[in-house]
């Protein structure tokens, strides 16, 4: 960090992670992980969070893995991919079906029948573009948020305020 010109206290701690779960095992493990994340952070299966746990109310660590919509719903930053729809259909019809945006659940029409070449060169080739597009879209949403935050920080610097917290202290 020192080589970057940052001391420990100045290092930006906010991070965003995009999880990509591929294949039957990846999708099943990913689904179990997201159920656990929801339980750990108090997010309900429909993506809602009790009002006492909203952003800014203490522990915001869930923002690394979830993004909040304008309606207050928390959506995982994840993409689930399988060539065959059966396992992802379990998510679409399961108790956490309202947690994920439908575009995050990407399936093909048939599996590769345990044939690597078929999955890599034929069927997999058909699904790779929608998967990469969805990942780019998720990443683009983060980039826009970072740009907005950088513009806000610049505005604070121009008026001589270090952060929005300094602004609150001045009101007392």
From TrEMBL:
UniProt main location, coarse: cytoplasm
Keyword annotations from UniProtKB, A to Z: Cytoplasm, Cytoskeleton, GTP-binding, Hydrolase, Microtubule, Nucleotide-binding
SMART domains, sorted: Tubulin (SM00864)
One Gene Ontology CC term in the entry: microtubule
Cellular compartment(s): Cytoplasm, Cytoskeleton
Domain Tubulin/FtsZ GTPase: 62-170
Gene3D superfamilies: Helix hairpin bin, Tubulin/FtsZ, GTPase domain
Biological process annotations from GO: microtubule-based process
Protein name as it appears in the record: Tubulin/FtsZ GTPase domain-containing protein
Source organism: Monodon monoceros (Narwhal)
């Amino acid at each position: 960090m020192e080589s970057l010109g940052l001391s420990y206290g100045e290092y930006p701690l906010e991070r965003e992670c995009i999880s990509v779960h591929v294949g039957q095992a990846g999708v099943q493990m990913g689904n179990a992980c997201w159920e656990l994340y929801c339980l750990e952070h108090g997010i309900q299966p429909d993506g809602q969070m009790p009002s006492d746990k909203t952003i800014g109310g203490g522990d915001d660590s869930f923002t690394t893995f979830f993004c909040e919509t304008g309606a207050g719903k928390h959506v995982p930053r994840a993409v689930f991919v399988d060539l065959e729809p059966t396992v992802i259909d379990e998510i679409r019809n399961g108790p956490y079906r309202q947690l994920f945006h439908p575009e995050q659940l990407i399936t093909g029409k048939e599996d590769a029948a345990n044939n690597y070449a078929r999955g890599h060169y034929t069927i997999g080739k058909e699904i790779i573009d929608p998967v990469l597009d969805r990942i780019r879209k998720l990443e683009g949403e983060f980039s826009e948020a970072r740009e907005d935050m950088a513009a806000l920080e610049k505005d604070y610097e121009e008026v001589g305020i270090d952060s929005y917290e300094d602004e609150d202290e001045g009101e007392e």
